[in-house]
TrEMBL record:
The keyword Hydrolase does not apply. NCBIfam families: PRK07231.1. Pfam families: adh_short_C2 (PF13561). The lineage of its organism: Eukaryota, Fungi, Dikarya, Basidiomycota, Agaricomycotina. CDD domains: SDR_c. This is Short-chain dehydrogenase.
Length: 270
């Protein structure tokens, strides 16, 4: 059985951990050639080595990329095209949640700027260079390859609902990702470039668990989770795989929620 990403080329940012790592594994299993990028090159390399043990013929390369730097993102897209000849899937996934991010009164401007630089500008640049590359994709109808592609931008459930445990810069940056994604989806729809957001709920990844480092902090959130548990990175990666593949060929501009029902909750089950 051919994989769902057979012959496709994917670039994933923040691929050294959490959602990015699980997506790299899944995409490679489904036949994609994958460029795993991360600001932490060692983590990306460790992930690539893990994939090599799981999938002997996997086509995976790594690159140190700081999504807060436009030249790094351009270099990453150039590498994907040079290595594999095209770019079909751009997963703008890297993001930070700074421990000093707080409410309107306590958040320092440098924390605001850093968060926007990585979470919002990084996604903009990822989209920009992906679009330029996807326009140039060679076509090969026999392999189902065409110009265009699928861009997936990681937002968050906090872009859809307010929290009384504020992280103002993070929330605003993710709201920006949703708004930007919708507009890009419209502008590039006729070029066969689909642009969707994925909105994870709270997950058991280092990003959140390093922050929720006490039972009190975890319990404060847990009561609001309809399924009574935090999500797993692999559960979001499966959503990303759907958006990356042609299975979602009539989807663009969507806020794709993988949140265990959180954003539909008023009260949750006892
Ligand atoms: P994670 O901390 O497990 O992984 C994030 C990866 O991004 C790390 O490998 C890190 O090195 C990398 N990274 C950080 N800054 C970078 C930069 N400037 N350039 C390139 N790479 C960088 O986190 P995760 O939970 O997998 O989060 C992935 C995405 O999902 C983020 O955008 C995050 O905001 C979003 N998200 C996470 C949750 C959650 O609960 N974990 C919920 C909603 C949204």
């Amino acid at each position: 059985m051919p994989g769902r990403l057979e012959h496709k080329v994917a670039l994933i940012t923040g691929a050294g951990s959490g959602i990015g790592l699980e997506s790299a594994i899944l995409f490679a299993q489904e036949g994609a050639s994958v460029l795993m990028t991360d600001i932490n090159l060692k983590a990306a390399e460790k992930g690539a080595a893990l994939i090599a043990t799981k999938i002997p013929n996997a086509k995976v390369v790594t690159l140190r990329t700081d999504v807060g730097k436009e030249e790094d993102i351009k270099a990453a897209v150039d590498k994907a095209v040079k290595e594999f000849g095209r770019l079909d899937v751009m997963f703008n996934n890297a993001g930070i949640m700074h421990p000093a991010d707080d409410n309107a009164l306590n958040t320092e401007e440098r924390i605001w700027d850093l968060t926007m630089q990585i979470n919002l500008k990084g996604v903009w640049w990822g989209c920009k260079y992906a679009i330029l590359a996807m326009r140039e994709n060679p076509t090969d109808a026999s392999k189902g390859l065409h110009t265009g592609g699928s861009i997936i931008n990681t937002a968050s459930f906090v872009a859809l609902m307010g929290a009384a445990t504020p992280q103002l810069a993070y929330t605003a940056s993710k709201g920006g990702v949703l708004a930007m994604t919708r507009e890009l989806a419209m502008v590039h729809a006729r070029e066969g470039i689909r642009v969707n957001s994925i909105c994870p709920g709270p997950l058991k990844t280092p990003l959140l668990m390093d922050f929720l480092n006490t039972a009190e902090k975890r319990d404060r959130r847990m009561v609001h989770l309809p399924m009574g548990r935090f999500g797993e990175a692999i559960e979001v990666a499966k959503g990303a795989l759907f958006l990356a593949s042609d299975d979602s060929s009539y989807m663009t501009g969507t806020d794709f929620k993988v949140d265990g029902g959180l954003t539909s909750a008023y009260v949750t089950p006892l």
